[in-house]
Amino acid sequence: MVSIDPLAPLSPAPSLLSPHLDDLGVTQGPDGGTLRVWSAHAEAIELVLFDRDDIDWIVATASLLPEGGGVWAVTTPLLHPGARYALRVDGPSGPGNVFNSATLLTDPYARGIIGSGLEDWRCVVIDGGFDWGGVTKPGIPLDGTVIYEGHVKGLTKRHPRIPTALHGTYAGLAHPAMIEHLLSLGVTSVELLPIHAFASEPRLLQHGLSNYWGYNTVNFFSPHAAYATAEAQRQGPEAVLREVKGMVRLLHEAGIEVLLDVVYNHTAEEGIGGPRSSLRGIDNRSYYRQQDDGTYIDVTGCGNSVNTSTDAAARLVLDSLRYWAREVQIDGFRFDLAATLGRDAGHAFTPDHPLLQAITDDPMLADVKKIAEPWDVGMGGWQTGNFTPGWQEWNDRYRDRVRNFWLSDIDYARRASTPPVGIGGFATRLAGSSNTFSEERGPLASVNFVTAHDGFTLRDLVSYDVKHNFGNGEQNRDGADTNRSFNHGAEGRTDDEAILATRRRAMRNLLGTLLLSAGIPMLTAGDEFGRTQRGNNNAYCHDSPLTWLSWEHAPWQEDLLAHVQTLTRLRRENPALRPIRFARLGERIPSASVMEWYDENGHTMSPDRWTDPGHRTLQYVAASTPENEPFNRVLLIVHGVEHPTTVALPELDEAERLVSLWSSADENPAAHHGLFEPGDELEIPSTSMRLFRVE
């Protein structure tokens, strides 16, 4: 427990928490529903109500009256659960203002929306009642967390054991067949690509494509209806929300957390001239970052950037998070382009931005995981390691170093006979990235990943040297050009068994590194059985079998799955692999792992060995400092060159034997691992890893 000095001055609450911003949207009371909308520059706001069955038939209107502080309100019995409504907002013309009193706009706080396209939306008043049956959040500790990033539709669209009616739906994700897979895989937390209501960009629709990933938000409170079953969609937004909550409840019953990838940095309204569906028409000047002349400051690359330096925009984000965390029982959030949320009124990133601090300090969000994608595309946009305690971050430095070590360095060595760098940088990432994250934050600030939805799949990473994105309609200009990938001798598909075997071992090395590193691992859905997108590293616009997981697997894919299952189990069983804190030389730090480093001869690593590209063999010993679990010590051998070597196991204090637990050289995880003694010599195959428990 943290002690608080009662005489210490209290920090003032950020202005975004001002009470005048409470209860925006529709709330129910004895006189009906009250709608409260914020707009600092509006001159008039009108509520427009529609027929339940014909959303083009206006049945009533009512004027909102100013309450002060930019808030407008109206109370009417017509705003009952199920009511369809929209807003009309009028205001001044001039730079930064784009009011149009004829445009129908959505309430930013609407809990349900219906419609289609980019501008033809109606809000729906939601009751939101749901029986959670006593089911609570699993509360997985950070050191025990293994994240599985996936897409609601893509995970289940082709699953043969899930009924067709549930394919690609929230309900399908909670089907016993899917839960069985998640539990057998050993993941603890499913991180879903965006499920906030979103729309496809006009440019994609013109090419016959769609926004599959969902990073084009229409509303921050409403779930995306197209992921619900046909029956729930027919019944309307209330039923869609119940299906989402039902999915969360069933996953929680199985002990699995639900994390959401949330996109608060921009909206589907794009740049000026794009759709005017909500924030732009309500108060463009306040909600979007812009120059004095109204020109947008786009640090997201998506046409607009939400201006979280204004209290109302920041509060909108905070209130949305509170809603999903409390009403929908979501366990955590991954913040897309989180650096944008931390930009101040001068558009510069600041780690102590009022919104970022409010998110970490809010009691309503105390039990949720907060994961930043710590960059955007604006000036000063790369901020990995710069968020404050309470945040975890996607660690792109980890991704790049691990890919380099196992892939691009090996490619280089084939052409130049020696890899370009030694093993030191890789070892730093393996041990928790202490050169990126402060001692105060520790290794669990790092969300480690090798692949994600954005980029090559694991299989494509070892099968392609370059991207193949011609199907995206942009002449292969989109997607990252620097992938640190290696095709191992043939681009894409091949029947060469030697190349295929080397690729499989490379995948096992990448997965082994990911799941045995200090930090929080994130596995991308489908990588556990080596799915491919045929070299497309930016498949955001393909809602097709290219992006849907296939559940029919060749024997080698089942072997790869068995490796992942083994690795997650070993991570769970060996706390030395998942330290909570960084160790300090000569001190006993609870829940840290004391690390020792040896070369292939069993000798302590000398300084020159860390950087010598001719010596890329390392023996890494991690010993836990027990706090809540029994003492544990492991040895991991990493061999990063394409020729076998002989390794002498180090003479470790108080070690009687070493139990072999896993080897990336095995096509299938060995059932019998073998026992060894300190000082024994082992033959280590080309580019491989081997894990032991020290007893």
UniProtKB/TrEMBL annotation:
Pfam families: CBM_48 (PF02922). The keyword Translocase does not apply. InterPro entries: GH (IPR017853), GH13_cat_dom (IPR006047), GlgX_Isoamylase_N_E_set (IPR044505), Glyco_hydro_13_N (IPR004193), Glyco_hydro_b (IPR013780), Glycogen_debranch_GlgX (IPR011837), Ig-like_fold (IPR013783), Ig_E-set (IPR014756). Signal peptide: none annotated. Residues 145-571 form the Glycosyl hydrolase family 13 catalytic domain. The keyword Electron transport does not apply. Keywords: Glycosidase, Hydrolase. Coiled coil: none annotated. Gene3D superfamilies: Glycosidases, Golgi alpha-mannosidase II, Immunoglobulins. SMART domains: Aamy. Residues 472-491 are annotated as: Disordered. Belongs to the glycosyl hydrolase 13 family. This is Glycogen debranching protein GlgX.
